[in-house]
UniProtKB/TrEMBL annotation:
GO terms for cellular component: ATP-binding cassette (ABC) transporter complex. It is found in: Membrane. The keyword Disulfide bond does not apply. It comes from Beauveria bassiana D1-5. Residues 2-238 form the ABC transporter domain. Belongs to the ABC transporter superfamily. In the C-terminal section; belongs to the OsmX family. This is Choline transport ATP-binding protein OpuBA. InterPro entries: AAA+_ATPase, ABC_Gly_betaine_transp_sub-bd, ABC_transporter-like_ATP-bd, ABC_transporter-like_CS, MetI-like, MetI-like_sf, P-loop_NTPase. Keywords: ATP-binding, Membrane, Nucleotide-binding, Sulfate transport, Transmembrane, Transmembrane helix, Transport. The chain crosses the membrane at residues 475-498, 510-532, 538-557, 601-622. The keyword Transcription regulation does not apply.
Length: 950
């Protein structure tokens, strides 16, 4: 079927062979596994069979045809390829992903639909997932879909590159069993690459063990490799306890059936002959499923062994079963016999019988030989009911708890919850239209709101050619025409440069040099060259629109996910098909981000262009300033207000627009060039922000670590600065969660508040917060703003309290973050409560490295600190007591964007607040600021110690 003759491969820049003189023949219908250390040539060999990599010398044959002279596109369409990651196209639904190769082959829609239904049933997928997108699936579901896609055109060959590497052990074990069952039905020629020798032994009819330098160490059946390793390398790679590995090769279903007394539930137990003389019997329900043991009038629990379970697990389970018997069941849960201490004899009889029948199936012969050996290797042993036991084959001591977990785990009693992500909060990653955010429609709500406000004083500016409506139409026309012309130039050029990667440096930098010139200078230069009319202005606007679109398109095309591009190539897509169906859709986030950037730049530049005679909203600014007609200036400023509103409301508005809009409407918007794209995170993605000092970084990382522990995708945006940056970002939806402090937040919204206790502050803050923000449960941990001086300064002026500081403050320089100079709880609060006026103020940070350096070096005399910062334990500073209680309660509290976090996220954050203490904060800050530990690792450790996984 597949033959590799004297294959050699050395990658450019390497001296060592990736593949060295490889010769191998893989038979039709054989399941072959490639295993070995990293960099030994496993994946390279697999890719050569699909011609994704080309050998330097040698030849690969498929059904006798050399690949070097074959139509490789057609060959690839007859080979299923499962990449190391699922490599599902994120812009396509599950059904569209599965249908990729049939569509390439020209199947009609009905045939494709029937095939999809067959594969859904074959791969045990829920039909509901067909309309979902890859990001809405769990890891196990994605792997199943990836295999279904590879099997869609019913190829005779299936290549699999570590398909289960990134999946948790429970799902991996299940998928391995499903793959074996699949092969038993389909009899494909399968080659699977893995790093796991146990996986290779379980799945493969033959195993190829590669070693470094691309050499083939041994290519043989699992049993022969375990029994007679070809070299010390192979022996070391297999590892200890080969007998234990052999146990995993044999399934319960391969053993001869052994029955126990049974009766159907509901029959008279007293007259049942199976119960005479105190004999134990198994009670079945009407459908033949085991219910319990019946013995001496008592009901005893049943432990089961599925026919798909390995003997390794069954041996372990038998050691901890009080009845000494496991009930054997089918995949549907029906009674199929029993497994007891006679297993050893059954295995020997089966092995002997298999040798006589001479069954030709490779896996059957291998298992028969294995069990024959094991049956003679296992010495007789009693099966104790409880406690630690010695496993005769494994050569190890197992505790009862370990055995309980093993039976539960392999008995199918643990179920992987379906990772079906809700789509209410996000649009997901779909086709072009589903990415569209229409900036024009985002502008309109704010624009009309601004116009309503302006209309009070601008009654004379509504009608006529000089009115607001007319100016708005002109401005919109200039922007959209310039954007469309720029897109017609930038997009094809960017796609061409990104795909061929020739001349990109020259073209992109030429446009970027032009972009570096001031926009007004470019407009005036064009007017000087082409005359005073609209044409030079349009040329200037188009020139300014091109660079962001060109650069983003080039980067999006040239840096498309190589795994997905390889997957497209492996399926047999031509270069043009790969470009249109894969690269361009994958590049859409960057392409439309460039369009959005150009759109915003054009909106602003078109205002400035009024200086060069262009009409539009900019005329209100230019004419109004010249005439001192301030209502006109207000009208012109409405445009800037609209631009700001784009950032504030784009996510929530576009969810409503695009969720209800038809596909045709979205594509029309795309063709008109009125759109820009944003990729919203899926429903379980949370963006966490934090200010620019250690404690905030630690807290943000604690939130992130705890959420990740619960399987929630998290993004962090740290060191963002002060609340003047963070709060608007939270309100706009760019952030979902930030750690905050009750008193400081109340001061931000209500500087004149008299509240001091936690309850008073919380109550006032709930009233003061905007409608789109919400507080979660406050923590007992608190961190207040403090004021510190060096020890020598404290001794010199006898400073212990802030009241003491008031006497000498005019001689001292204070340092802190910029906002402390204006906030009520900063310097104005000190002046109000204590009468403190400093000599001068230096803008630094709050208790951060700048303040530490300035205070220790004498550049400042008083530093704005945080009461929980860890270096207070190390530095020779004196924190002055707030003897008049100027600071209100500063309990830590998560502040969230309403509707942006699910109840599950809220529960996690509230759990953090409940567990976090002020002592914890001080210690965490010390680890980062004094011991110089990584904040993320410090946070992970706290979460591991304080929060139990749920």
């Amino acid at each position: 079927m597949i033959q590799l003759e004297n294959i050699n491969k050395i990658y450019p820049g390497n001296v060592q062979h990736a593949i060295n003189s490889l010769n191998m023949t893989i038979n039709e219908g054989e399941f072959c596994t490639f295993v070995g250390p990293s960099g030994c040539g496993k994946t390279t060999t697999l890719r050569m069979i699909n011609r994704l990599d080309i050998p330097d010398s040698g030849e690969v044959y498929i059904q006798g045809q050399p690949l070097s002279s074959a139509d490789i596109i057609q060959v690839r369409r007859k080979i299923g390829f499962v990449m190391q990651s699922p490599a599902l196209f994120p812009h396509r639904t599950v059904a569209e992903n599965i249908a990729t190769v049939p569509r390439l082959l020209g199947w009609d829609k009905r045939a494709i639909s029937r095939r999809i239904d067959e594969l859904v049933a074959l791969m045990s997928l829920n039909p509901l997932v067909l309309k979902r997108y890859p990001h809405q699936l769990s890891g196990g579901q994605q792997s199943r879909v990836s295999i279904a896609r590879a099997l869609a055109a019913d190829p005779p060959i299936l290549l699999m590159d570590e398909p289960f590497a990134a999946i948790d052990p429970v799902v991996r074990d299940r998928l391995q069993g499903e793959l074996l069952a699949l092969q038993a039905r389909l009899h494909k020629t399968i080659i699977l690459v893995t790093h796991d020798i146990n996986e290779a032994i379980r799945l493969g009819d033959r195993i190829a063990i590669f070693r470094e330098g691309g050499h083939l160490g041994q290519f043989d059946t699992p049993d022969n490799i375990l029994s007679w390793p070809a070299s010390d390398f192979v022996r070391d790679f297999i590892g200890p306890e080969p007998n234990l590995k052999r146990l995993g090769m044999m399934r319960v279903g391969d053993l001869p059936r052994r029955d126990v007394p049974v009766f159907t539930h509901g029959e008279p137990t007293s007259s049942d002959p199976n119960l005479l003389h105190g004999q134990r019997a198994l009670v079945l329900d009407a459908e033949g499923r085991p219910q319990h043991w019946q013995e001496n009038g008592q009901q005893l629990p049943v432990r089961i062994a599925k026919e798909s379970d390995s003997l390794r697990h069954v041996y372990s389970a038998l050691l901890d079963v009080p009845q000494g018997v496991l009930v054997r069941v089918t995949a549907a849960g029906h009674y199929a016999g029993a497994v007891d201490s006679a297993l050893r004899a059954d295995a020997a009889a089966f092995a002997d019988g298999a040798a006589v029948t001479g069954d030709g199936h490779a896996a059957y012969r291998r298992n028969a030989c294995t069990v024959h050996r094991l049956a003679r290797a296992v010495r007789p042993a009693d099966f104790p009911e409880r406690g630690a036991v010695y496993h005769p084959v494994a050569g190890a001591v197992y505790s009862a708890a370990t055995l309980d977990r093993t039976v539960s785990y392999h008995g199918g009693m643990q179920k992987l919850p379906a990772d079906v992500l809700e789509s209410g909060r996000a649009l997901g990653y779909t086709r072009f239209g589903r990415f569209i955010e229409v900036e024009l429609f985002l502008i309109l709500p704010a624009l009309f709101a601004g116009l309503r406000i302006a209309s009070v004083t601008l009654a004379d500016h509504w009608g006529g050619d000089l009115g607001i409506w007319h100016r708005f139409g002109e401005h919109l026309y200039y922007v959209l025409v310039s954007l469309l012309l720029g897109a017609l130039i930038a997009q094809p050029l960017g796609i061409l440069l990104g795909y061929w990667r020739r001349g990109a440096f020259f073209a992109i930098n030429l446009f970027n040099i032009g972009q570096a010139f001031p926009s007004l200078g470019i407009i005036l230069l064009c007017i000087m060259l082409l005359g005073f009319n609209d044409v030079p202005v349009f040329i200037a606007l188009v020139a300014l629109a091109i660079p962001p679109m060109l650069t983003n398109t080039y980067v999006g095309i040239s840096h498309a996910d190589q795994t997905l591009c390889d997957a497209a190539k492996a399926m047999g897509m031509t270069p043009l098909q790969s470009l249109i169906r894969v690269r361009i859709p994958l590049a859409m986030p960057l392409i439309f981000a460039g369009i959005r950037t150009s759109l915003l730049q054009l909106i602003a530049t078109a205002v400035v262009a009024a200086y060069a005679g262009l009409d539009g909203l900019g005329r209100f600014l230019i004419d109004g300033l010249g005439q001192r007609d301030y209502p006109q200036v207000i009208a012109g400023s409405v445009n800037a207000c609209a631009q700001h509103n784009i950032k504030e409301r784009r996510v929530m508005m576009m969810k409503n627009w695009l969720t209800t809009a038809s596909k045709g409407f979205r594509l029309t918007l795309l063709a008109a060039g009125l759109a820009s794209v944003g990729f919203a995170a899926h429903a379980e993605t949370v963006t966490i922000g934090g200010a620019n000092y250690s404690e905030q970084t630690i807290l943000a990382n604690i939130y992130a670590s705890a959420l990740k522990q619960q399987g929630i995708e998290v993004k962090t945006r740290l060191n963002l600065g002060n609340r003047e940056i963070i709060i608007p970002a939270l309100k706009s939806g760019e952030l979902d969660v930030v750690p905050e402090y009750l008193g400081a937040l109340l001061n931000y919204y209500h500087g004149g508040s008299k509240a001091t206790t936690e309850q008073e502050v919380s109550a006032e803050l709930q009233q003061a917060l905007p409608a789109d923000l919400a507080l979660l449960k406050p923590s007992s941990a608190a961190s207040i703003t403090a004021w510190g001086v060096r020890e020598e300064t404290a001794k010199k002026y006898n400073l212990k309290t802030l009241s003491d500081l008031a006497k000498v403050a005019p001689e001292l320089v204070v340092g802190g973050p910029p906002e402390v100079a204006t906030r009520a709880l900063g310097l104005p609060g000190l002046e109000r409560v204590y009468g403190i006026k400093f000599k001068s103020f230096k803008s630094l940070d709050i208790g951060g490295p700048l303040s530490r350096l300035a205070l220790n070096s004498g550049k400042i005399d008083v530093a704005t600190l945080v009461s929980t910062q860890g270096d207070l334990l190390k530095e020779k500073w004196v924190v002055l007591e707030d003897d008049k209680h100027e600071q209100p309660a500063q309990n830590l509290v998560p502040l969230v964007h309403k509707g942006a976090v699910s109840p599950k996220v809220e529960d996690v954050l509230n759990d953090i607040s409940a567990k976090l203490t002020t002592k914890d904060l001080i210690q965490l800050n010390k680890l980062v600021d004094v011991d110089h530990k990584d904040p993320a690792k410090v946070a992970d450790q706290w979460v591991k110690e304080k929060l139990a996984a749920k």
